[in-house]
Amino acid sequence: MVNIKINNQSVQAEQGQTILDVARSHGLDIPTLCYHKDLSPTGNCRMCVVEVKGGRFLSAACVTSVWEGMEIQTHSEKVMKDRKLTLEMMLANHPQDCITCDVSGECELQDLAYEYKAVAPSWGTKGTRYPVDSDPNPFIRVDMNRCILCRRCVEACAEIQVRDVWGVAKRGFDEVIVAGAGTSMLEARCESCGQCVAYCPTGALSNKMNYGMARAHQVKKVTTTCAYCGVGCQFDLLVKNDKVIGVQSNPDAPVNGMALCVKGRYGYDYIHHPDRVKKPRVRRYLLDGGKKNREGSPWDWVETEWETALDITAKKLMEARDNYGADSIGVLTSAKCTNEENYLMNKLARQVLGTNNIDHCARL
Amino acid sequence: MAGLAASFGSGAMSNSMDDVAQQAKAFFIIGSNTTEQHPVFGTMLRRAVRFRGAKLVVADPRRIDITEFATLHLRQKPGTDIALVNGLMNIILEKGWEDKAFIEERCENFDEFKATVMNYPPEKVSEITGVPVEQLYEAAQIIAENKPTAVIWAMGITQHISGVRNVMDLANFQMLLGYMGKPGGGVNPLRGQNNVQGACDMGGLPNVYPAYQPVTSEEAQAKFQKAWGATSNLKVGAVVTEMMPGILEGRTHALYILGEDPVMSDPDTHHIRKALEAIDFLVLQEIFPSETSAYADVLLPGVSFAEKTGTFTNTERRVQMVRKAIPTQGDARDDWWITSEIAKRILAATPQRVQPEAPFAGWEYRDASAIMDEINVVTPSYAGITHARLEKGERLQWPCPAKDHPGTPILHTKALSRGKGRFMPIDHVPPAEEPTEDYPFVLSTGRVLYHWHGGQMTRRAKGLLEIYSEALIELNPDDAARLGLNGKNRVRVTSRRGSIEAQAWVTDRVPPGMVYANFHFPEASANELTIAALDPVSKIPEYKVAAVKVELVR
Question: Does the reported pTM lie above 0.80?
Fold first, then answer.
């Protein structure tokens, strides 16, 4: 253990802990942009600077370890001024288009600029430096004009997805994030998991499928479990006007944390597909009382009320049971449905029909 | 699952994904295309290899994506897994790397098992599997020296006529090395669908009631008779791969299908279509018209996961909430409501069937959580799992036998579920269909990252379809050259059962003599070709090996 002082208050910390870790564990807020708890700290954005007594420069709290006797000021006048300058430098090279930006309201740069009253300086760049929506990936919208070079995308791809699609090219003012060696994302072997979007603090990387559809304060978030594979990832469905318009990582997800795959994050649009069956259907022959006929108009679908469709279903299942015995009925339950639904299918087969002929696609 | 149940007394993933990814010193992946089929778990394994230095041995005929991270990739011939695993165990015994104390204290039947393994010396195994002898030694050494190694598999192991025996042999493997019941070890079959574990747990199987209480047990029958006021007989029912042929044989007259698409997902599509044409009555409860709905007499609109409340159980036995986010679409209804309404109608017409005083004779459910309350009473492993606890944020993995029980992340920590683990002597059996002069290629089948199973959901997801828009047949460059594929990349693949045409993806992911196809697209579904040869115990079809010929489409 080491003894340190933060803002004149004595605090005990573990050897090797960073200033940021210690401060946050004591409920002290130090602002960050490039830092994310899931990723290795890089110390490149300078937002988390603090004043350490005796130090010649301000120190980046995310990469500076505490030592015995360290005295830290997290919000001194010098620190606040420096942070504001850092923000102004970022804003100097960032489009002033929050009013139309998709992530306005959940943009970390915007929040900090607001907090520190930072505005774009008059000497900033004018116009766009990079093409807007520059990558053909069907899910991920790339606008490098909004990038603040925090490199979370580079790290998320390397450390969470372990795919190394993103990298940093050029130096100085020309420094830019690129996919592969300046190719498209898919050419750089992107798996379209969207981890880079989830970790991007600004609108540089956002989602194409719901671009322009809703901002953070306009959606309802509902935490649920993915319906594709057996890993059991959880995420938030974003709902606006009773429609699912997106999927967002939920950092508290037990299995996956922020990570999702391409199907989980972007494979949701089937929910509102026009092909959805929205009313019960029965073949015409069933309404006419005729015999089963798979040809022509007797085989046409007719939309009915629930009463009709359910009555026919019950009658036909009973007919099979009465004519050929309960074991002439097969029940296929579903590995896509819930436990509760599967339990009822099991109860229906065994209690109501009296057969053990129940199975699902576990084998397939 | 049948294989693990025989060896250990419990058929499920023994460890948690997080535990495996964090604790294992090495991974042995055999028959799992992890990064494409369980992508987020796949990334956990990549992280373990890159950042923690975990070793990775992959045994797969195809050069699947995860092999990029492999310390060693064994490319066994399809359908030779038992020979491969026996060969590795032979080397482990030769070198004295087995865990003698674990075998002595916690297992039985070792001598009989050992006698069988002795018949698999490395040279013979190399001949059967096509894996070089030195690679066999290297793999055995990596796995034996990195304690513990987690074995991970999926359908590449189970979808063979020897599927159950493949699984038992992997159970042998982990017992031999003493890797059972330990963090970072264990047997880890990855379940394919979001709730295949739960569908099994809930009695969606012909041989068991919820929580694997056997239907052949008079005790279990009496228990459910008492709970429900009526139940089924003591005879094991038919599996899906028996129900379908049963239609043409006059045994199956009616089918009630919930959210499945057997035309796409069952083997030998032609035969399935013939069967469904002949059924007396088919009721299908679905969200989309599917390949199967063409044969349905009644189509009942259920709802997607975004419209329902309930629970899914993932591959590591973790029960998690599914929450309703949007209203049901159109006049669709909750799937549990539909099933209840059918049940109520049948019981109303035949009230004498059920003793009405039984506590769960009725079908009046307020909501999904009321159904879970009933599950708690009749399903011992779920007795303590309630919606209220999950909503409070509790993280529960079954077995969870009481309302104050914290759940069970790792099975078999003290003793294996059946007491002692049983070594099973397992011999190699060749696949049901091997290449011949007329059908010289081996076909293996599966899914790809961008699509899901029969494709009803993902073919309706615009971006996924944009990235992967049609069926592709993976074909080795040498074979492509021999067939004269020269820019004209369309091929016809034909088995004894059917034929499909699709674009070839010329790639060394597959070795010469092998092709790989998926079943996501009805116009070129691999299941037109697959054989309905079943494992005798699990009744799982051999999707992973069929003999085909490949021709250039001119």
Answer: yes
